[in-house]
Amino acid sequence: MDEQVYPHLLAPLDLGFTQLRNRVLMGSMHTGLEESRGGLPKLAAFYAERARGGVGLIVTGGFSPNFRGRLHPLSAEFSSARTARAHRVITDAVHREGGKIALQLLHAGRYALHPFAVSASAIKSPISKFTPSEMTARQIQKTINDFAHSAELAREAGYDGVELMGSEGYLINQFICQRANHRYDEWGGSYENRMRFPLELVKAVRARVGRDFIIIFRLSMLDLVEQGSTHDEVVQLAQQLEQVGVTLLNTGIGWHEARIPTIATQVPRAAFAWVTAQVKASVSIPLITCNRINTPQVAEAILSAGQADMVSMARPFLSDAYFVQKASENRADDINTCIGCNQGCLDHVFVGQRATCLVNPQACYETELRLTPVATSRKLAVVGGGPAGMATAVAAAERGFAVTLFEKNAELGGQFNLAMQIPGKEEFKETIRYFTRRLEQTGVTVKLEQAADVALLTDFDDVVIATGVAPRMPPIEGIDHPKVVDYQTLIREKRELGMKVAIVGAGGIGVDVATMLTEPSEQRLEDWLKDWGIDQRVEYAGGLYPFESYISDRQVWLMQRKPGSVGKGPGKTTGWIHKKVLEKRGVELLGGVSYDRIDDQGLHITMEGQKRVLEVDHVVICAGQTSVDTLSAALRAKQINVHVIGGADVAGEVDAKRVIRQGVELAARL
Fold first, then answer.
1. Residue 543 falls within a domain, yes or no?
2. Quick check: 91 and 85 in contact, CB under 8 A?
3. Phi-psi region of 484 (alpha: psi -120 to 50; beta: other; left: phi over 0)
4. Do 162 and 250 belong together in one domain?
5. Would 327 be classed as within a structural domain?
6. Regarding beta strands 402-407 and 379-383, do their DSSP bridges make them parallel or antiparallel, or are they unpaired?
7. CA gyration radius for the chain?
8. Angstrom distance (rounded) from CA 174 to CA 506
9. Same structural domain, 415 and 541
C-alpha cells in the first residue's frame, strides 16, 4: 500500500478547531430518505458506510429552516428539537466510523413547488409553477433567525457543521442576483445591498453556533444565467463571507434554470475547476471545487495544480462508498466509477422516488438489498456478459455461489460496448472495467466466445439468461436495401456513412446515433465551453457569452412515428441537453412520420398528409429492440431452474439501470 499515491487528496486539512482526515467532501445529495417514513435509520446506514469508506467530510441533502422554504409541502424541515433528536441516529452512526458530517440548510425560495413560496421579489422562475410572494423586511429577518436556529439545532443533533446553500438558484442566490432581486430597499438595488442577506445570515449562524463549528457556504461562482454575478462580484462576496466567519467556501455552478449542462456525462471531467481557481487567489479560507470529478487521478490533479483545497464529489459516493479507501490503498481500478448518467439519482429524485445508482443498486438500499452469504454453495450459470449478466455474476459470487459466465462474443460489456463509443458516453467503459475486475476478484469463471447450449447448462443448479437484445427491424418496404444499416452493426463495425443520413427512431438510441454522426471529431475543454457560450473570464453577468455553435457538415434527419417533441431520449433530467445538442448541430427533428419505403432515391415519408422524399445516402434503423432468448423454454423442459433478466426478459428501451438492479436483486434472493 502506497500512502503517498495521492498525496494532495489524502492530506489532512486543518481547520483550526478541528481537522479533516483528507481533502474529500461528499457533496450534498437529496436521496428521498430524508422525508420518508423510517427513512432516517436508512439514511444513517447510507452515510455510515461512506464514513467507513474514508470520506473526509459528508454533507447531507438539503433541509429547510422553515415551512415556506421547503421544496415541496412534504419536504424535510429541520426546525425543532424533536427533529434534532431524531437525527442523532445519523450523526452517531457517522461518528462511530470516524467521519464528520454537516447538515445542509436549503431554502427553496422561488423554486418551491407550493403556493407559499417566497423570494426576494415576486418573480416567477421559468421552471416553477408558482409565483413567489415578495418577502417583507420582517419575513427576511425571521428567515435569517430560522437559519440560525436550525444551525443551533444541528449542533445539538451532533452535526459537525452546516452548509448554507447559497447557489444553484435557491433563495440566498436569488437575493444576490438582479435576475431574481428587483427590490429597492436595504435588501436590493446595489450589489452591496444584495449581498446583505447572505452576510447577515452567516453572522447570525456564527453567533448561535460558536467558533468551533464548521460553516460551509455554497457560493454560486458561475451562475450561467442572464443577470447573474460577474467574477468581481463573486470575489467581493467571497472575501466578505470569510470576514463574517465562514470556514469553507464550496463552489456552486449554474442555477437549476440554466440551460447549460453542468454535471451530465457529456460534461468533460473537472470542467469547472478553473472557476474555483479564479476565486482561490482572493481568499485565505479553504475552497472546495466540484462537478464531474469522478476518479482519484482527476481529483489529485486539481489539488496538485493548486486550483482548490478540497474536492467535492457527490454521485461518485453513490456508485462506490469506498472510493477514498480504495484510492488510499492504490486500488483506483477497483473503484466503481460514476458515469454521470443521472438515471438512478437525479432522475429519481425529480419524480419523488428514492435515489440510487445505475451502477450500484445497493446505494440508498444498504439495509434492504443485502448480499448475505449462502449456507451451501451452488453452481450458477449466467448466459450473457452484458451489464445484467456481469452484475448478476458478481453479486452471486459475492454471496458464495460457484459462478460460470458464458459470453458468445470475444469481449464482455454487451450494449455498453456500443454506448461507450457515443460522444459524451465514453464513461461507460469504466463500468465494463469495474465489473470485469470484480468478476476476476470474486472468482467467476468467464468463458468468452462460448455460446451456451442446453447440453452445456444441464449440470448447473440455476441458470440466468441475460442474453440481451437485437435491433428490431420495422416492416418498411425496402428495409433490406443496401442503404439500410441497423444501429448495432453501424457502431460495432464502424460503418462509414454518407453526408446525408436518415435515422428511423428517436428514442435513446436514435438520439445517441444522431449525436455520434454530428459531433466534432475532437473537442477540448475550451471548445466545449465555447460551444455552450461559457465566458471563462466571467466578465459578462452570469458568465455567459453567445459563442457561435458548431454546425455539422453532415445532414441528419432524426424521426419518430409519434407526434410531438423529438430528440430528448429517455433521461428525465438530461433530455433537454440531448435535444439542444442536436439542434446546435443542425439535426432536423421530425415527429409524426410515416415511413413509406426505402429505395435508390432515399427514404420516402409522409408527414401531416404530405409526401416527402429524403434523398439520403444511408438510413439507420433505431426502432427499438427485440429480446434474445433461445434457451429458457428448453431448459425449463429439462426441469432446470431458469431466471430470465435484462433485455432477454423485457426489450423495451435499453435501460441499464433496470437490468443491473434486476440482476443484483435476483442474486440477492437466490
1. yes
2. no
3. beta
4. yes
5. no
6. parallel
7. 26
8. 37
9. no
What is the separation of C-alpha 78 from the centre of its chain, rounded to a whole number of angstroms? 26
Q: Which of 459, 656, 474 has its CA nearest to residue 559?
A: 474
* Residues 544, 533 contacting (CB under 8 angstroms): yes
According to DSSP, residue 648 is labeled: G
Residue 618 CA to residue 75 CA, distance in Å, equals 51
170 is catalytic: yes
Q: What is the CATH number of the domain that holds 395?
A: 3.40.50.720
Residues 438 and 570 grouped into a single domain: no
From 6, 47, 159, 170, the catalytic residue: 170
Task: Give one DSSP letter per residue of 435-497, joined into a string.
Answer: HHHHHHHTT-EEEET----HHHHTT-SEEEE---EEE-----BTTTSTTEEEHHHHHHTT---
pLDDT tens figures, 595-643: 999 999 999 999 999 999 999 999 999 999 999 999 999 999 999 999 9
Residues 145 and 236 in one domain: yes
Residues 619 and 655 in one domain: no
State in Å, rounded, how far the first CA of the chain is from the last one: 36
In a domain, 336, yes or no: no
Tell me the C-alpha distance between 121 and 183, whole Å.
Answer: 6
Alpha-carbon gap, residue 407 to 414, rounded angstroms? 9
Tell me the sheet residues that pair with 485: 620
What's the total number of domains in the chain? 3
Residue 505: CATH number of its domain = 3.50.50.60
Grid cell listed for 255: 442555477
The 8-class DSSP code of residue 539 comes to -
Exposure b/e, 547-559, CB count within 10 A at least 16 = b? eeebebebbbbbb
Sign of CA dihedral 148, 153, 156, 162: negative
Same structural domain, 403 and 544: no
- Measured between alpha carbons, how far is residue 603 from residues 546, 582, 597, 600 in Å? 36, 21, 6, 9
Residue showing cell 432516517: 40
Residue 520 has pLDDT above 90, yes or no: no
Residue 589 located in a structural domain: yes
d(CA 485, CA 623): 12
Q: What are phi and psi of 344, to 5 degrees?
A: -95, -20
Task: Give tens-digit pLDDT for 63-112.
Answer: 999 999 999 999 999 999 999 999 999 999 999 999 999 999 999 999 99
Q: Could you give the dihedral angle defined by the CA atoms of residues 104, 107, 111 and 113, in that order, rounded to the nearest 10 degrees?
A: 100
Let me know whether 460 and 542 are in one domain: no
Q: What is the pTM of this model?
A: 0.95
Say what the pLDDT of residue 78 is. 98
264, 284, 304 - which closes a domain: 284
C-alpha cell at position 617? 445516402
Place of cell 454537516: 102
**Is 162:103 a contact under the CB 8 Å cutoff?**
yes
Interhelix angle 137-156/191-209, nearest 10 degrees: 30
Q: Are residues 84 and 184 in the same domain?
A: yes
Per-residue pLDDT at 595: 97
Out of 241, 263, 284, pick the residue that ends a domain. 284
| Residue range of the domain that includes 245 | 37-52+61-284
Q: What per-residue confidence (pLDDT) applies to 1?
A: 41
The neighbouring-strand residues paired with 607 are 593, 610
458 with 638: CB under 8 angstroms? yes
